[in-house]
Design a protein that fits this description.
Layout (H helix, E strand, L loop, with lengths): L12 H11 L4 E5 L6 E5 H17 L7 E5 L4 H12 L3 E4 L6 H11 L1 E6 L4 H7 L8 E4 L14 E2 H6 L15 E6 L9 E5 H11 L12 E4 L6 H4 L1 H8 L2 E4 L6 H10 L4 E4 L1 H14 L8 E5 L5 H11 L2 E7 L6 E4 L11 H8 L3 E3 L4 E5 L14 E6 L22 E9 L4 E7 L4 E3 L2 E3 L1 H9 L4 E11 L3 E10 L7 H11 L8 E4 L13 H7 L28 H7 L3
Helix pairs in contact: 1-2, 1-9, 2-3, 7-9, 10-11
Bound molecules: adenosine-5'-diphosphate.
The site of adenosine-5'-diphosphate has 22 residues, from strand 14, strand 19 and strand 20.
Length: about 575
């Protein structure tokens, strides 16, 4: 080999913030503070200084390279500083999803062996509930000043006191770019949560890819509202991508309702917004009820679950905002594909463009995709051969943290996503289902996602989830669970008729059940496992379905700061 003669400069996360401080020092990070609801603003230069103070404080607390530091926190400037301070000293920031059950949080902290855990005021009850079950944690640190210290039985420090007297210059070490930087657990709806351990190299490469115009995009001109949480898959890399590009970063803290988000969108001249479909439904509802517009917003990136057609049309046709769908997962840092149109689509009618935008999109540079049949054959990219979607690339997990082998990792070096999808010859990937959610009927597959999307087009339907239930003749048939829109009461027949117009006849659900809310998991996705459990005694027959409706609601709590969370903590 003739070696290239270029510098061997390792990709360090600390280098991203140094770059932003030197080149975009005045560009702001704006935060709605969880402890007060007030707005905090400062520039990348200040964030750089405070992250150096935090690096000194962590070193004094004895955090060594490779050790884990947990955070249970919203999107805030302090969380941002810790992202850089912890990984910058070669330690690992372990972001914890506060929407998990407290016993899961304790399990994860113990499994990760977190030495210190930082938390927002909102999550003080969680910390009080789990602290005694996490003997390895040496310090619990509130991410606020002393004046916001809540009444707690756990002994705590505060972040502001911790960093106050530290120097704002730190001699950042340079080390192997393959060193671990960040740890994030999958939500664990099927078995124990599994840790995904990102490296400096994977994080920097993912961020570089994310700021390409057709991915998340946004240069120094952009003002990006990061609704997607920093406690889950590093907010899709925005805390790294935004400073790399010099974009303004708007952090909503604990207030994710339509009114609070709109205040930031309007007040901070937001041009790009990133989050899951349920958030955009909430904002849409607020816009409609209050007759507001989105004058400055150019693009919404929606991902984490399939983008409903009605939502896409509402923003694109009603508000003139481009909506893009992204697909990915925790194991992929998370970005895998983005739904962009190409120049050859320019002349297409809007309906055709919508069809393309509802696909999960094109693989971003750095992610290879393939679809494999049940018996391991690679399927053609013909836009119809569905199978198991597998991926590989420099920001995709090669194994889980502290687990030897898992069958998602193939012998030839790919990761099996658990999604069922097809690819077309133009590069577009379409997810038809999660492998475990596919409805298998008479030897054929029904896509639960397509059924849900069809149902959500009905004017009276707010949300819908389709699950397969055992059927004496067909093996499985679909049951559709529907949350009607406020003030609407559609009938089963109306929904079935509507779906019959949109899908093949044999896809029409055998029954429709109406509920007030759908059970949501820790990442805001519908928990189909809960729905299947709830309706497990529901009988679908050949003639008249006999309904055995369960009495209790399976909807879990989703409000982690409030009363429900406190009740939950009673288990300890
Ligand atoms: P994330 O953590 O980013 O939500 P998870 O690892 O929890 O990722 O879940 C990833 C799964 O979410 C994917 O395998 C896929 O089933 C689903 N998903 C993510 N984005 C989309 C999308 N745009 N359309 C359909 N499903 C999606």
């Amino acid at each position: 080999m003739m070696r290239g003669l270029m510098m061997d400069a390792p990709l360090m996360i600390s280098g991203i913030l140094r770059h932003a401080a030197l080149n975009h020092g005045g560009r702001e990070i704006v935060t709605r503070l969880p402890e007060s609801g007030e707005i905090h603003r400062y520039g990348y230069r200040d964030a750089w200084k405070r992250s150096q103070q935090a690096a000194h404080a962590l070193t004094k607390l004895g955090v060594a390279p490779g050790e884990r530091v947990g955070t249970i926190a919203w999107n805030t400037h302090r969380h941002f500083e810790l992202y850089y301070a912890v990984s910058g000293i070669e330690s690992v920031i372990h972001t914890i999803n506060p929407r998990l059950k407290p016993e899961q949080i304790a399990w994860i902290i113990n499994h990760a062996e977190d030495k210190i855990v930082f938390f927002d005021t909102t999550f003080a009850p969680i910390v009080d509930g789990i602290a005694q079950h996490c003997p390895g944690v040496e310090k619990w640190v509130l991410m606020a000043g002393a004046e916001h210290k809540p009444e707690m039985k756990t002994e705590i420090l505060t972040y502001e006191e911790l960093i106050a007297d530290e120097p704002d210059e730190f001699d950042w070490p340079v080390f192997d770019e393959h060193a671990a930087a960040c740890l994030c657990y999958t939500s664990g709806t099927t078995g124990d949560p599994k840790g995904v351990l990102y490296s400096h190299r994977s994080t920097v490469l993912h961020a570089m890819s994310s700021i390409a115009p057709d991915v998340i995009g946004g240069g120094a001109e952009a003002s990006i509202l990061a609704v997607v949480p920093m406690f889950h898959v590093s907010a899709w890399g925005l805390p790294y991508g935004a400073p790399m590009a010099g974009a303004k970063l708007v952090m909503p803290g604990a207030q994710l309702d339509g009114a609070s988000l709109y205040e930031l969108i309007d007040g901070e001249d937001v041009t790009y917004m990133v989050g899951v479909p349920t958030v955009w439904l909430g904002v849409l509802d607020y816009l409609r009820k209050n007759e507001k517009r989105l004058d400055k917003v150019e693009k919404i990136l929606s991902g984490g679950s399939a983008l409903p057609e009605a939502l896409l049309r509402a923003y694109e046709e009603g508000y003139g905002v481009t909506m893009q769908q992204g697909w990915g997962m925790t194991e992929m840092s998370p970005i895998g594909t983005i739904g962009t149109l190409k120049p050859n689509h320019d002349g297409l009618p809007q309906d055709e463009k919508v069809k393309i935008k509802l696909k999960q999109g094109l693989g971003v540079y750095g992610v290879e995709l393939r679809v494999v049949s049940e018996d391991g054959k690679i399927l053609p990219r013909d836009g119809k051969s569905s199978g198991h979607l597998q991926v590989r690339g420099p920001w995709i997990a090669s194994q889980y943290f502290k687990r030897d082998s898992d069958d998602q990792f193939t012998d030839d070096g790919w990761f099996d996503t658990g999604d069922i999808a097809h690819l077309d010859d133009d590069g577009y990937m379409t997810i038809t289902d999660r492998a475990k959610d596919v409805i298998k009927t008479g030897g054929e597959w029904i896509s639960s996602i397509d059924l849900e999307n069809a149902a959500m087009g009905h004017p009276d339907v707010a949300q819908a989830a389709a699950i397969g239930l055992p059927h004496p003749k067909w093996q499985e048939r679909p049951l559709l669970v529907v949350v009607p829109k406020e003030g609407c009461s559609p009938t089963e027949q109306q929904i079935q008729d509507y779906i019959a117009e949109k899908c093949a006849k044999w896809w029409v659900p055998d029954a429709v059940e109406f509920v007030e809310e759908l059970p949501l998991g820790a990442t805001g996705k519908v928990l189909k496992t809960d729905l299947r459990e709830r309706f497990k005694d529901y009988k679908l027959g050949e003639d008249k379905p006999k309904k055995a409706r369960p009495e209790t609601s399976a909807a879990p709590e989703t409000d982690n700061g409030g009363e429900k969370r406190k009740k939950f903590l009673g288990i300890f």
